[in-house]
Fold this protein.
Amino acid sequence: MPKDLSSSGNSSVNVLNQIPKKNKKKTELLKYIRKNWILYLFLSPAVLSVLIFNYIPMYGVVIAFKDFSPVRGIMASEWVGFSHFTNFMQSPNFLRIFMNTVQLSAYELLIGFPIPIILALMLNQVRRSGIKKNIQLIIYAPHFISVVVIGGMIFMFLSPAGPLNAILTVFLDRPVAFMSEPNYFRTIFVASGIWQAAGFASIIYVAALSNSDPQLHDAAMIDGASLLQRIWHIDVQVLKPVMAVLFILAVGGIMAVGFEKAYLLQTDMNLPASEVIETYVYKRGLQAADWSFGAAVGLFLSIINLMLLITVNQVVKKLKGESLF
Amino acid sequence: MSKIAHSKKIQTINNSKTDQLLLLINKILLSLVVVIVTVPLLYVLLGSFLQPNILVSHGISLNPDHWTIDGYVRIFQDGSIMRGFLNSVLYAGGFTIVSIIFSILAGYALSIDELVGKKAFMIFFLFTMFFNGGLIPTYLLIRELGLINTPWAIILPGAVTVWNIILARTYFKALPNELKEAARIDGASDFMIFIKIILPLAKPIIFVLALFAFIGQWNAYFNAMIYLEDRSLYPLQLVLREILIQNEVQPGMIADQLARAEMQRISEMIKYSSIVVASLPLLIMYPFFQKYFEKGVMVGSLK
């Protein structure tokens, strides 16, 4: 609109020309929509679904600033400003839950991110494609096991009467209560996550490597480059763009710990390490029906996630010229 | 082929001693990885046919008294696992169908460059990747819509993901434009072009998206846990959660048992066999779809 005003100040001829143009544009748009209405029909189920299940909850977030009661509804509930947020941040649990979330996901990122890359570099050295395919087939398998089963297996293997303790009794005189000791929780969580996901996560790197030019390796070999030199100067360079993109995604989702697994692995005893923001939201918000407080804690998490995603995207954009969005 | 042979030749000429040592270490490490992945799986599979704790106390026992299929018998007698299985087929199937139809249609529309308002629609979808309302507002919405304790609470929310729309769009964009142009010149309508030309070409992407959607929903438990109350509606994963995590034995499985120690023994056995029953279908099927998974991951990275 301001553009129109400024241009109209320059010359009246321009204005006269613009009015019919605009109308023409409008009729053209209508004509276009009439002709291509089917495309808009195609879009409508997805738009409607996202509107209902994604955007309405975004509006529903206002209850984080209210004292929501189901009887009164969202509109009629009283505004309380930021009191739920300050309550959360001043509660004695806040620091512990916040740090649990950060630590758990930081460990998962630091250890979980490089392993699929290393695995792919190792697989890339397997010359016989039949063997390589079979190894891949096996290491993908855990990806298809549900989180509930993984949780169940962890409890079974680590129970005081389980196989791991049976091995450990050789060195120790009594069984270790892995699942009731907060100190072990993070290791158990991260290690089982790697067991389940690293193989499948390597797919993308393996594919990127197999698409790279084999002549690069030939040339380097003729120049006398050693295996490690070739891996570093060729394979790792090939993987760099993929790594950048996946790293953005991983850091952007760093606060989104696998709370579904964390919740399954929680015992009363390991809670000091296993309570993360989302399991806390579930317990306070849903189980204890403290709706507004739960929504506030959830919003707190969403905002941190948003800032992380934007920041990391900016950083990588500056460094590499690679960007997701 | 000749390329591989060629590089092999160079390799044998040029490989130094240290390189060969490294390749050997690589092989050993990879074998170790394979062992680490398979041992827990085999342990559960074997354990499901053995009396509880035999693997810990005796290893793989050859004593026939130690072997049993009691765990499996009890699972099939009780029926809650089977009912969970059927519910899961229903939920994962419904979720997949909704997800595919919605995202393929939207992906196709957004793949057309001339679509007026395309950018606005993309922003509308992409925004949901950055921000969401969170657990509580979503739950309140589902409750407000009256979907609590209905299969729709599992099937509808989350069926449309931006990611799937973008994958479908990328795929359609890569199809040659001439196909559409030719059909248009022949007087075909947009709808007929989509049905007759685009859809048959879209089979691979449909299959890949369907595979991921189905498996994701099949293995999920959290939404079912918060939205479903009736035990008769429970999907497989919730039944498993009761058995594996909460240590609750299904009543039909212990109908004949009173002694506490015996119940303990049976509940241990049922854990193993229920893991096998629940996980085996996917583990047997996925090798047949391996190339689609690889394709799917690669399409995802193209974006």
